[in-house]
Design a protein that fits this description.
The complex is a heterodimer of chains A (374) and B (640).
Chain A lengths: L1 H8 L3 H7 L2 H21 L6 H21 L3 H25 L1 E3 L2 E6 L4 E2 L1 H19 L8 H19 L4 H18 L3 H21 L2 H11 L10 H13 L10 H4 L11 H34 L3 H25 L17 H19 L7
Antiparallel strand pairs in A: 1-2, 2-3
Helix pairs in contact in A: 3-4, 3-13, 4-15, 5-6, 5-7, 6-7, 6-8, 6-14, 6-15, 7-8, 8-14, 11-13, 13-14, 13-15, 14-15
Chain B lengths: L1 H41 L1 H12 E6 L6 E2 L5 E13 L7 H12 L3 H13 L6 E7 L1 H9 L7 E10 L7 H4 L2 E2 L3 H6 L1 H6 L6 E2 L2 H5 L1 H4 L4 E7 L5 E8 L7 E2 L4 H10 L5 E7 L5 E7 L13 H8 L9 H4 L9 H10 L9 E3 L2 E4 L2 E4 L7 E3 L1 H6 L3 H11 L1 H10 L22 H8 L5 H8 L9 H12 L18 H9 L2 E4 L4 E4 L6 H16 L18 E7 L6 H6 L13 E8 L6 E7 L5 H18 L1 H8 L7
Parallel strand pairs in B: 2-10
Antiparallel strand pairs in B: 1-8, 2-3, 3-4, 3-5, 6-7, 8-9, 11-12, 11-21, 13-16, 14-15, 17-18, 19-20, 20-21
Helix pairs in contact in B: 11-24, 14-16, 14-17, 14-22, 16-19
Classes of the chains: A mainly alpha (374), B alpha+beta (640).
């Protein structure tokens, strides 16, 4: 076994490049190029702040993804717990010394850019739990100790993120964690019981929500109750998407975004702008592109020999899926507004950094898919 | 191997569970696509409409008022291009510097600067502030020369009301100015078309015909952003100018009236005796309505307001005067109609008449001796008319006078400042003053003094109805849609019927019982002007083309005391306020009469000296323009 490991470790750079998943890579490149164009449109057809920054971030993080990919998947396996703890430390740091902006304290200033550790936690939690379920015997998965440990792994970061406050990201972290529990073999009845408990305690949870969060839920249920206030975003978003029609209004011709009716068009509502300008056809095209990425990641997981790689890939594919679903449901008025970016498309360094690291680890799994991890 | 088995089992679990998740993912994605489909395909129209509603906003521009023209089509209230200066605050780099520059260039007052700063605080940064509503050409050129230095300044050309004849038509037309809140609320049309900077009629016909003149707004559609800022213009929908209104007035005659009354307080009205067209209606002194367009300055306003000759009052319609001797034709007519007197009836005038211990004086102290109707009218013998009035009684006189239009509004509701005057009778006094009528009051009513009050336009109409042979005319100042020509009006009148264009019926408009009586009165008026010893003999024109008949009047404004009567002061020696009003009513030409007029010169002294000479000058012009007017009436009529 040891011999075999060694052999795997000695893959040459040439082989690494050869073993990269080109369908995934091309899809990510396509998505990146598209995102720059859409960002250019949010700037009103000019290369301004957002377009420039977005491009620079892509230019930095895309090579970073390749860099991450060139580390053996075993390396990521070995460092999973450490990475998780570093991110936890960052979350603790942020909760004391973080930068405050619009009522929440989520960011830390790294001079080059502002980092949002909770975004990194989306990846770290998948790594951490993937490693845990990789190492644990299947028989022990449903033991009390095991359940206590995995729940702690999920709940500790969520406590910090919720207190920032950032409901959107904490839900995404929780879902990313829960999916690994599911994949790792936790009993289905636990999920069913928890879901029932969740439903029963829902009114109780709602009473603990902050007033603005309650308002968002009320607004989701009836956006017209305050069309110029809380309901404004969702109404304008639906108008933009709906008016896009089959073919869209054309690149740079989205009146809703161009005339500033769309809120947060660079970040959470980027899909709205895209959909207004490129219509139903463009939107479905974008979903297909995302689907290719997701299924490619699942395929890489499926061919991986190690369960760590498999769990990470499946978990990450699900995470990407859930980011997209939450974001699109929000802009389409299917879910209340929770801050959640659309991977790669949305403006935001931390989210892109986390996504690219995730892709990097997936590519590492692909390059080293024959790698066994003890 | 156990470990390896466990590993395989684990992989199986992961794969199986992944498959379940994968299937769920497909379902969710299909759900999202279905939602997209419903929004973008099924409800596309609804959301497109909402999106357009979001981005397109309409701006109304002030409508262009319709022109008002005189009978000959000369514009008397028109529109003029004016140069304005706007500032768009968001484009200004340094607002205070700009204001200092503009202040120097345009000599703006400090008050104006304060006002601009206030506006800037109130308006949105992309709304333009009007710095100057009416720049002179030289100022406009100056601004354009310095434009490179005046960032954010926009010279604008726009349209404003203009009265080319300045003060000539002020009392007829009124003027326009910014509406106040109440005026906007009261008139639905204004409310609907109101935009800041719009002017509305404040007085006269401009006010009365507001809904005809106002015009419709031009509409500009702009694409706006979420904050309401205009991004670009989509389309421009032209507004319709308000209706053109044609008046019956003749600018040449109106202008002449103004010149003849120059620096006097008074009024001249001229009327077509058949059609009732008002040819001139001038109240003196007048003021320039153009001053009000851009806000009148306090100094100019005080000058108008405090003028002792009261230019703000439209004397033709709102001025109430005792008619004095100008009422005598009606007194004579009434007496004739009621067969109280005939042409042979004579009264001996001794200069005064005693009644129940009260003395009633004739203007001629020595008396006129034995006078008949014709002589009494000619020399305006008061004693004769005291006696006639005494015999007639005020109630019968009242009936005739009201028939001829006294005590009623002449132009109906066209001018809200028109007064209806008063012709008293016994019932009126009982009802309003609570006292019984006294015979002495009948005597003074017979010479046009006492309670009786008339407007100059009433006197003009009264004269017109005597001149046309005793038929009712319907005075009008606006040429109506289906105007009746002068000949037709005359013809239908002489047949004793009048075509009423409103009810489209032939109405009996005879005001007399016996037309001979009218003829007698006409002859007496002719004598008064054209025969020796007539009160207006000096103002006669002998050329039959222009020859006119008339009656002078001198209205006392206060009771003459015995001392004053003995003093017999010259006009200049009496304080202005106490001087008599001079009146004159006339019609001409005597053969085939066409026009009637009334002249009043406030505190002008006697009618024969102050008023009648004006008629002499005016008649020549009026009759000279008759052919022109006749020709014009055959032209295409411009509708209201």
């Amino acid at each position: 076994m040891f011999q075999h490991d060694r052999l795997s470790n000695e893959i040459t750079l040439f082989q690494k490049i050869k073993n990269l998943d080109y369908i995934l890579l091309i899809s990510v490149i396509l998505l990146s190029v598209l995102s720059v164009f859409v960002m250019y449109s949010t700037d009103g057809g000019e290369i301004l702040f957002h377009t420039k920054n977005h491009f620079v971030k892509l230019a930095v993080f895309f090579p970073l993804m390749i860099f991450v990919a060139f580390f053996n998947i075993k390396f990521w396996h070995n460092f999973s717990y450490i990475i998780y703890f570093i991110v936890i430390l960052l979350l603790i740091y942020v909760s004391f010394f973080g930068i405050k902006s619009s009522g929440s304290q989520r960011w830390m200033d790294l001079y080059l850019f502002v980092l949002q550790p909770s975004e990194l936690m989306k990846i770290a939690i998948i790594m951490c739990l993937a490693k845990y379920f990789h190492r644990i015997k299947i028989e022990n998965v449903n033991s009390f100790t095991s359940i206590t440990i995995v729940l702690s792994i999920i709940i500790i970061p969520i406590i910090f993120v919720i207190s920032q406050p950032d409901l959107g990201t904490s839900i995404l972290i929780a879902l990313s964690g829960l999916i690994i529990l599911w994949l790792g073999g936790m009993k289905i009845k636990y999920f069913i019981y928890s879901f029932i408990t969740f439903l029963i305690s829902l009114p109780f949870i709602i009473s603990f929500l902050k007033p603005y969060q309650k308002l968002r839920i009320l607004t989701f249920l009836d956006p017209d109750r305050d069309p110029l206030g809380a309901g404004y975003q969702i109404i304008q978003s639906k108008i933009a998407i709906g008016s896009g029609g089959l073919n869209g209004k054309g690149f740079l011709k989205g009146t809703q975004s161009y005339l500033d009716f769309l809120p947060e068009k660079h970040t959470d509502f980027i899909f709205t702008l895209f959909s207004e300008e490129f219509g139903f056809i463009g939107s479905v095209g974008l979903l297909i592109l995302y689907s290719i990425i997701i299924f490619r990641i699942i395929r890489i997981g499926a061919i991986s020999r190690s369960n760590f790689a498999r769990l990470f890939c499946f978990g990450y594919a699900f995470a990407i899926f859930i980011y997209i679903v939450v974001n699109l449901s929000m802009v389409l008025g299917l879910l209340p507004i929770v801050g959640s970016p659309l991977p790669i498309m949305s403006y935001g360094g931390s989210s892109m950094l986390a996504t690219m690291i995730g892709f990097g680890i997936v590519l590492s799994a692909k390059i080293n898919h024959k790698q066994m991890i003890a | 191997m156990i470990k390896s088995n466990s590993g395989i089992r684990k992989t199986d679990v992961i794969n199986r569970r992944m498959f379940i998740i994968g299937a769920a993912k497909v379902v969710v994605f299909v759900g999202i696509i279905a939602r997209l489909f419903s929004l973008q395909i099924n409800e596309n129209k609804k959301y497109l409409t909402l999106s357009d509603k979001n981005r397109i906003r309409e701006w109304k521009l002030p409508p262009t008022r319709g022109n008002i023209v005189d009978y000959f089509g000369n514009v008397i209230a028109g529109n003029l291009k004016v140069y304005q200066l706007h500032i768009i605050p968001e484009q200004v780099e340094n607002f205070n510097y700009l204001l200092v520059r503009l202040k120097n260039l345009l000599n703006l007052s400090d008050k104006r600067i304060v006002r601009i700063n206030k506006l800037k605080a109130e308006l949105k940064p992309w709304d333009s502030i009007i710095v100057s509503e009416n720049l002179s050409w030289s100022q406009f050129v100056k601004i354009n020369n310095y434009l490179y230095d005046l960032v954010g300044v926009k010279p604008v050309m726009t349209i404003s009301r203009n009265y080319p004849f300045n003060d000539v038509y002020t009392h007829v037309l009124g003027y326009v100015s910014q509406p106040n809140e109440q005026e906007i609320l009261e008139n639905e049309t204004i409310q609907e078309r109101f935009v800041p900077g719009m002017k509305i009629g404040k007085l006269g016909l401009e006010k009365r015909l507001e809904n005809h003149l106002i015009g419709t707004n031009a509409i500009q559609r702009y694409e706006v952003n979420a904050y309401g800022k205009r991004i670009n213009q989509l389309e421009h929908q032209k507004g319709k100018q308000g209706s053109k209104i044609r008046l019956t007035v003749d600018t040449e005659i109106q202008k002449a009236c103004g010149e003849l009354l120059n620096e006097k307080a008074g009024s001249i009205s001229v009327m077509d005796i058949y059609t009732g067209d008002i040819i001139a209606m001038y109240s003196s002194p007048s003021y320039n309505p153009n001053l009000f367009l851009f806000g009148i300055s306090q100094d100019e306003w005080q000058l108008i307001r405090n003028n002792p000759l009261k230019p703000l009052i439209n004397k033709t319609l709102s001025g109430l005067y005792s008619p004095g001797s100008t009422i005598k034709p009606i007194v004579a007519l009434s007496a004739l109609e009621n067969k109280v007197i005939d042409t042979k009836f004579k009264v001996k005038c001794t200069g005064k008449m005693e009644l129940y211990g009260q003395t009633f004086h004739c203007w001629k102290e020595k008396g006129h001796g034995w006078v008949s109707l014709k002589n009494a009218m000619k020399q305006s013998c008061d004693t004769y008319f005291y006696e006639v009035a005494r015999l007639l009684g005020v109630d019968r006189l009242n009936i005739t006078a009201e028939k001829f239009g006294l005590g009623k509004k002449v132009l109906g509701d066209y001018f809200d400042n028109e007064k209806k005057g008063l012709f008293p009778n016994t019932k009126w006094k009982k009802n309003n003053l609570g006292k019984g009528w006294v015979l002495g009051e009948t005597l003074i009513t017979g010479i046009g003094q006492g309670y009786i009050q008339t407007t100059p336009l009433q006197l003009c109409m009264m004269t017109a109805q005597i001149a046309n042979g005793g038929f009712a005319v319907k005075p009008k100042i606006i040429v109506d849609s289906n105007p009746i020509s002068y000949e037709d009006a005359k013809q239908s009148m002489e047949s004793g019927l009048l075509f009423d264009s409103e009810s489209e019926e032939l109405l009996d408009k005879k005001l007399f019982k016996n037309q001979k009586n009218i003829k007698i009165v006409q002859e007496a008026m002719f004598a008064s002007t054209n025969e020796r010893f007539g009160t207006s003999y000096k103002s006669r024109i002998e050329d039959p083309k222009y020859q006119f008949a008339g009656k002078t009047g001198t209205a006392q404004v206060k009771r003459i005391s015995k001392r004053e009567r003995e003093l017999d002061l010259e006009l200049e020696q009496i304080p202005y306020k106490d001087r008599d009003h001079a009146l004159y009513v006339a019609y001409g030409p005597y053969v085939n009469p066409r026009y009637a007029l009334s002249i009043i010169v406030e505190h002008g002294g006697s009618g024969s000296k102050a008023a009648a000479p004006i008629a002499k000058k005016l008649f020549k012009l009026i009759i000279d323009r008759h052919d022109l007017r006749n020709k014009q009436s055959n032209f295409e009529r411009i509708t209201v």
